[in-house]
Each structure stands twice: as structure tokens, then as C-alpha cells.
Amino acid sequence: MNPVTIIEGCAYPFGRKNVDTDVIIPAEWLKTTTRAGLGKGAFEVVRNEPGNVFDDPKFADAPVLIAGDNFGCGSSREHAAWALDDMGVKAVIAPSFSDIFSGNAYKNGILTVVLPQAAIDRLMEVAGRGDPIHINLEHQSVTTRFQDRFSFKIDPFRKSCLINGTDEIGLTLASATAIGNYEARTATVRPWLKPEIAA
Amino acid sequence: MATKPRTLYEKIWDDHVVDRRSDGTCIVYIDRHLVHEVTSPQAFEGLRREGRKVRRPDLTLAVPDHNLPTTPRLDAAGNRLPIADQQSAQQLAALEANVSAFGVPYIEATAKQQGIVHVVGPEQGFSLPGTTIVCGDSHTASHGGLGALAFGIGTSEVEHVLATQTLQLAPSRTMEVRVEGTLGFGVSAKDVVLAVIGKIGAAGGTGYVIEFTGSVIRDLSVEGRLTVSNMAIEGGARSGLIAPDETTFAYLKGRPMAPRGPDWDAAVAYWRTLPTDAGASYDKTVVLDAADIGPNVTWGTSPEDVVAITGVVPDPASFADPGKREAAAKSLAYMGLIPGMRMEDVAIENIFIGSCTNSRIEDLRAAAAVLKGRHKAENVKWAIVVPGSGLVKVQAEAEGLDRIFIDSGLEWREPGCSACLGMNPDKVPSGERCASTSNRNFVGRQGPGARTHLLSPAMAAAAAVTGRLTDVRTLMG
Ligand code: SF4
Fold first, then answer.
1. Which of B73, B221, B243, B385 has the smallest number of Cβ neighbours within 10 A?
2. What are phi and psi of B91, to 5 degrees?
3. Going by CA atoms, what residue is nearest to atom 4 of ligand 1?
4. How many CB atoms sit inside 10 A of residue B70's CB?
5. What is the layout of strands, in order, in the sheet containing A133-136?
6. In A, residues 129-168, which contact B (CB 8 Å cutoff)?
7. Cβ(B420) to ligand 1 under 6 A?
8. Strands A6-9 and A133-136: what pairing?
9. Under an 8 A CB cutoff, do A98 and B270 touch?
């Protein structure tokens, strides 16, 4: 995972609520066996709408996406995070995210920033004019050229993993002994946990 | 630890913590990992790239379901028929190559045990109470109906579980959803869970694990409980648990992968300790009265857009929240509905009875009971019944349900996810409406431009008969 510290640039002023992962990347795109190339399918349905923010040259290649409540709800497809990554989005700012999506985003080095609706409204205004937004993960802040400054919270562990680009599997494998001990203990107290093989 | 009263969720959590970090994040052991063709190829690719193995293939079970066509899979001579869609065929080939390279137990596309992963797990006795169960699919919540802590994960987490048999997780808050009373005539588990989502909202359970309690839940069969837990995710909660009881044990006993002999007795003894202790507290409690729950349908493009079948399409202006008002107006434009229109006047051209929400034998029986001796309406162009697994299919055929469906003009298919999501050949045409027993009515979910109304199997059957959304109670005995 690439380390994340500062994300800066214009933002898609999308703003919609309850954007589900079927909207972020439709099912038809899930037939791939690799992670790359999904950006082409991102927000396909929205892109059919005339005047949509994703095809507006003002926001071309924006690294930030601003959305409404409950962003990334629905299907657990990580393809949603891969699609955002492939289209160059490095951070999504919204009042709330679905649990599964924010986990998937973080595992792909995409920062999910939770801010209150009032802050979102203001950032939509700034972003709508094509003005850049600056996110500093170290300081946990979102700022603009106009003295706006919003602080956000983030799980400290996630923060350090993002900043250091840590491989989570490698980290867990460092606890292999604890996992082995747990397995040995469970095999004695709950031996029935080992599945019977089909008769 | 045993001194403080605990909830079902807390008991399962406590028994699965391998290691706890100072910030509260835990390494949590995973007892069961279900794998399917769509969300696993990149995970296996990741293992290969890093030279890692699958830690516990014996706790893993793979089955293809999402993009297998539901048309016959074998020709007359018993040879496997090719899958026309190249990408789907490739994904299936990738799964087959991966399970054999990594030694993962596999149910083949043509096996009679094949089916939707969330139907197969409980049916095989692979899913058990008190276990942690994950799958790269958000409807893993289903298995919570057996009293398991079950939740969907993304592909990076699939890779994490394959490599370590654990996940790094922070504990969730708990929400009790209590449904008290007795369900009325013609009202099913699906109506209950739609009522719950209508009440708490599509994001109401975000950050929570739900436990469904109350007399209505206790009185449900395991199949009904799986339906309720299945849709916990549509209320924003990753998991929806139901305490295991005698109904659960009776359902699991003798299943192929369930414990046997002394192991069975030990398992049941453990399972009996799991229900929430008296005096344990939840972070939030929501109560519903069965008397307020009738047959429900959705009118919009979020599962929270629920209305009684006897109701009307809501006016967006009636919502207090401006965001919801705007979303409702958008939904109605997409759905082609007018505020104030009676739900029973909405004409339907497509019927889908299936998906991990409602494709088990009881669901098919409920639909067949309505269809028996009747025929689908003229305006219903496409109506399919897709059993959740090959074993459900065999059982339904033994009971003659397939004949009832076929005689009423419905198609009887091979098991799979089918029209639940638009990634296999079963799609609803753009601009057309579908009465669907699945779990998501999102924009484009059943195919680009498709308009979905979620409802129960009996209600889907009623819509097939009349060609419009219909209160099934008017067609029942
Ligand atoms: S039936 Fe639908 S919801 Fe269930 S696993 Fe398949 S695609 Fe997902």
C-alpha cells in the first residue's frame, strides 16, 4: 500500500446521499479477475446524466470526492474502492460511510473523511467552483484557500497504517504464535468446531 | 468475565479474540470462510504475489453462484455446457484453478449441493451457532439467523482471512430489534424485516450489530430467521444475530458438515450458553409490534422505502428531511411512479422468486400455495423461480412444486444468484418493473434501468397471478 499523507486538488462536488456500491461500480464490471481498469466503469449510471460532475472538465482527475450520508452502502464489493482508486480518487469526504466501504477504502489507501453536513455544504461550494481542497492526514484537517479549516477524527491505528503504507496481512502474521495458541486452545475446548466432511 | 451479564454478540466476540491491541482493535479468529467466484480472484492473486498459503483450508468452503447462468448446466449426455459470457467463464475457471492450487474444499457448479453461498452454508451444516463466519459478500449477515456472528468482507479481507484465518476488527455497538406479538395471516419473515428497515432506515444500523429478539423472531422457523438476518445489512448493520434455540438445533442436526455424536452434544451444550443474559444491555433498542406489520412492498430505490401493500406511493414533500425529499423525488422518477397512486394499482411485467433472502424450500412452498390452480396474468412477460440450491431444487421437485410453477406459466431454473443482481444473463429489461423476493432495489441492481419492488415470496406469487402488486391475503383461503 502506498503511504498517504497529504491529498490536494480539486474535488468532485457530488454530494448525493446513500450512494451504494452498485452506483459506484455496476455489477456488470465485477466479472474481472484483476484490480486494474475499473475506473472506466465508475459511476456509469451517473455519467449517463447530462451535466454530471464526473464528465465536467472542471473536475477532471480530481483526487477528492465529496458525497452525502451513508456513502458506499450496499454490496461489499471492494471493486468500488478499486474503481475510485483507478479513477484517481484518493479521499472521499462525507457525513457518514458504510462500515464495509470505509474498511475497503482504507485497505486500498483511500482516505474516508467524516465531516458534519454543514462542513460538507461549505466544501461543496468551494469544490463546485473548481477551487482546491487540502487534506492533511497527519494533522487530521481539511482546509481551503479561504481560511476554512475542518478537523476530522480517524482511528489511530488506521491512521498510522495509512501514513506508513503498512501491509495488514504482514502485521497480523507477526502474531502467528498467538493465532497458533488460540487454535490449539480451541481444539480442546470446542473440538466440534472442525467441520465434518460431507458423508 | 462471567460476572457481567453479556449479550449474544459479546459472548461470541469474547470467545474469538486472539489478541487485543491497546487501542481496542482485536485480532479475531474466523471459524468459517465461504468463498465465491466474484470477490475471490484478486485475493488469491494477492496470496500468490506474496508467496502465502491458505492457513486453514479445512475451515474454508468455495462455491460458485453469482454469475453462473441458471439455464441447464449439462447437456443430454451429462457433459458440462460452456458459459457463453467469456468473462463469467473466466471467473469460474479462475475459482476452479484457485481452489485446486490452494487446496480449498469446493462444491462444483454442477454438483447437486451447489447453490447460493448463503443457502449452502446453513444447509450443509457448515454454518453453526456461536461461530464467526465471513464471506466476500454483504449478505453473509444471513448466517446470523443461526446465532453466528456473520458478516460480509471485502476482497482484501478475504485475502487476510485466507492467509491468517483472522481479521483485525474493533468491537461494534449493539442494537436490539425486538418484534413482539404474533404475525397476522399472510405476513412473513420478509414483511417483518422490511418493516424493520422501514423503521430504522438504510443507515440506521451503521456501526451496530443487530440482535433480533422477541416472540415473533422466536416463533420463526430457521428459514424465516435466515431471511430476517439476511437483510440486516440493508438496515446498515453488518450482522444480524438471532439467539440459537431448540428450533436451531433441530434444523442443524444430521446436516453433512455439522458435528456428530459426542461432538454434537458438546456443541449443543455450548450453544445453550450463548443467548443474551438477563440484565445485559444493548447500546440501543428498537421495538416493533407484530400487529402493525402487514404484507409490505418497496416503492423506491432504497430498501428503507417500505410501504404497506394497502398503502399509496408517498409524496416526496411529506418527508421532513430535505435530503430524503430529494432522494424520494429521484427514486419516484426512476421508478416511474406518481405520489398518491395505490400500490395495488402498480402493474408488474416481471417476477423473480429467488435470491439468498427467499429461495429456500419454505419460500417456494409459500409461493406455490398461492399459484396452485392459477395462471400468471397476461401482462407478466417474464417470471422465474430460482431455487437457492440444488438440494432445494430436488426437494421442491419431490413435493411437486416445480409442476405448480410450470403449470402457472413460471420458469423453473437451476440454482444461483440469478436476477438478484445484474451480472448474469437473468436481467430485468430497462424501464420494466419486477416484483422481486431479493434484497436490494437499488438503481440498476436487476439490470440497467430495471425497476424493483421488494416483497415476500407469497406476495410475488400474488403479483404473478394478477399482473400488479397485490395484497396476497385477498387470494388466500
Ligand atoms: S442472491 Fe443476491 S444478495 Fe444473495 S449472494 Fe447472490 S447476489 Fe448477493
1. B221
2. -65, -40
3. B356
4. 22
5. A6-9, A133-136, A141-143, A149-151
6. 155-157, 168
7. yes
8. antiparallel
9. no
Complete DSSP assignment for B384-440: EE--SBHHHHHHHHHTTHHHHHHHTT-EE--SS-GGGSTTSS--PPTT-EEEE-SS-
Written as one string, the DSSP assignment of B269-288 is HHHTT-SPPTT---SEEEEE
Contact B115, B57 (CB under 8 A): no
Nearest-by-CA chain B residue for A98: B206
Q: What are residue B350's DSSP bridge partners? A: B382, B434
Q: Which amino acid is at B137?
A: D
Identity of residue B220: L
DSSP alpha helix (H) spans, A15-167: 21-24, 44-47, 79-86, 99-107, 117-128, 156-164
- Residue B382: its pLDDT value, please? 98
Task: Identify whether the C-beta of residue B150 lies closer than 8 Å to the C-beta of residue B132.
Answer: yes
The label of the residue with cell 479561504 reads A146
The helix/strand count (H/E) of chain A reads as 8, 8
Question: Is the ipTM, as predicted for this complex, more than 0.90?
Answer: yes
Distance CA B124, CA B126 (A): 5
- C-alpha Rg value of chain B to the nearest Å: 22
Nearest CA in chain B to A103: B154
Q: Does B421 touch chain A (CB under 8 A)?
A: yes
CA angle B192, B198, B204 (to 5 degrees): 110
pLDDT tens across B205-237, in order?
999 999 999 999 999 999 999 999 999 999 999
Question: pLDDT tens across B327-381, in order?
Answer: 999 999 999 999 999 999 999 999 999 999 999 999 999 999 999 999 999 999 9
Instruction: Sort out which chain B residues have CB atoms less than 8 A from A14's CB and list them.
Output: none
Cα–Cα distance for residue pair B99/B96, rounded to 1 Å = 5
User: Is the Cβ pair A186, B156 closer than 8 Å?
Assistant: no
pLDDT attached to residue A2: 77
Say yes or no: CB of residue B137 within 6 Å of ligand 1: yes
Q: Are A143 and A149 in contact (CB under 8 A)?
A: yes
Tell me which residue has cell 480530481. Answer: A62
B139 vs B115: CA distance, rounded Å: 14
Q: How long, in residues, is chain B?
A: 477
Backbone angles phi, psi at A177, to 5 degrees: -65, -45
